[in-house]
Amino acid sequence: MTMRVRGYNCVGRDVDGDTSPNGGICLFTSHLYPSHVVTLHTSLQAVAVRIHIHSLVTVCCVYLPPNDVVLQVDLNQLVSQLPAPFILLFDFNGHSPLWGHDDTNARGRQIEQLISDHCLCLLNNDEKTYFHAPTRTFHSLDLAICSPTLLPMLNFEVANDLHNSDHFPLLVSHVNGTGVRNCPPTYRFHRADWDTFTRLAVITGIMVQDGTINHVVLNVTEAIRNAADAAIPKTSNFSRKLCKPLWNSAYQQAKKEQRRRWGIFRRYPTTDNLIAFKRAKALARKTRRQSQRESWIQYVSSITSSTTSQQLWRKVKTANGLYRDFSIPILETSTAIYLSPVDVANVIGQTFASVSRSDSYSPAFQATKNRLEWTNINFRCRQPLPYNCDFDMCELKRALSSAHNTSPGPDGISYELLRHLNEDSLISLLYLFNRIWREQVYPTQWQEAIVIPILKPEKIPRTLSAIDR
């Protein structure tokens, strides 16, 4: 089964054969965490993924239909295939007092035996996980089971909202949080106070005349960055939430009323309260569909004769759900598996360095290369050739005006900031550039860069051969 949800990887398994329209299972993993699929050899409806949050954990989802005959040996073989530590998320359809049932059935005894044989830990408490609408009763059918080493690290709770299902979501979280990678904040130039920035970003002549090149560059960078922080707001370092055009005030109010009616019914499960909840649910569904139609009409109406081709194709791709998405995979080499994002970044960097180094050159070429790199270049000559002269202000302003607004390096200084420096600061900046040119010392800070690897099409993400620079 293949399904695309923006920001998530999907792995699923359909029901074998066409004997029943029910069943099937699907597991989504966020692109914020490295993950890869675990291949399972089982006849059960089960899928598994290894994912790295604070550490590497295997997550396995299993669905056991209530009328199917499940052998104990099949459950044991499934557990034996899961790399430890692991979390099992079950819709077992089993009854046992261990997870809040008043009675025990055969499926419940199977689960009890599975937990005992493999020394597993049950995360469930007495909270109900299933709502049976015909009888208006609540039961515990969904289970969360984990390896013993994970038990002290996990919290378990059951969500209150059914989200239009008959099963409550199980929330299994790490005690130290999710460890979500925050996005680096960037300047929002469209909201910048450029007058304040120009007034604060002062680069004096003394600042660029005294000290080494590295020290001067550090001071200039700090002065520009401090002024930018004071005059230009930044984006949040949290991941951007996806836009929901249909979510207007009417739909928000309808959903609020639906949740309120559901809360009343959970406390007092009477027929009148159930009818009131279903009425609120139907109204929320009607409001959502109406909001979807209105948002779609508004979106299509925004395409006019003045819309550029670039904007048009962006809207067409958005309407068709076409977007670029990439997740950090778990990298596998012949000698090791790299799990955390830091380890993945380091091994990619080492691979780039090994490709770029000069070990593959002949000894004679390496000797010549090393000798010439240590030879100082003499810019002095009898004739004042233009390419040997100092830079002038016209060249600096022309370079800044023609430069594109590309992403800045690790120092965060972009061309847009340099364009808004005052005349005196530009003169000092020009003096710094000429110092670098005359002294032939390239700043250490400028030798650092942010390298983004690009996944090659039709390549396996887990291998280094799938990455291009």
UniProtKB/TrEMBL annotation:
<dbReference type="InterPro" id="IPR005135">
    <property type="entry name" value="Endo/exonuclease/phosphatase"/>
</dbReference>
<dbReference type="InterPro" id="IPR036691">
    <property type="entry name" value="Endo/exonu/phosph_ase_sf"/>
</dbReference>
<feature type="domain" description="Endonuclease/exonuclease/phosphatase">
    <location>
        <begin position="58"/>
        <end position="170"/>
    </location>
</feature>
<dbReference type="InterPro" id="IPR052560">
    <property type="entry name" value="RdDP_mobile_element"/>
</dbReference>
<keyword id="KW-0808">Transferase</keyword>
<dbReference type="GO" id="GO:0003964">
    <property type="term" value="F:RNA-directed DNA polymerase activity"/>
</dbReference>
<keyword id="KW-0548">Nucleotidyltransferase</keyword>
<keyword id="KW-0695">RNA-directed DNA polymerase</keyword>
<protein>
    <submittedName>
        <fullName>RNA-directed DNA polymerase from mobile element jockey</fullName>
    </submittedName>
</protein>
<dbReference type="Pfam" id="PF14529">
    <property type="entry name" value="Exo_endo_phos_2"/>
</dbReference>
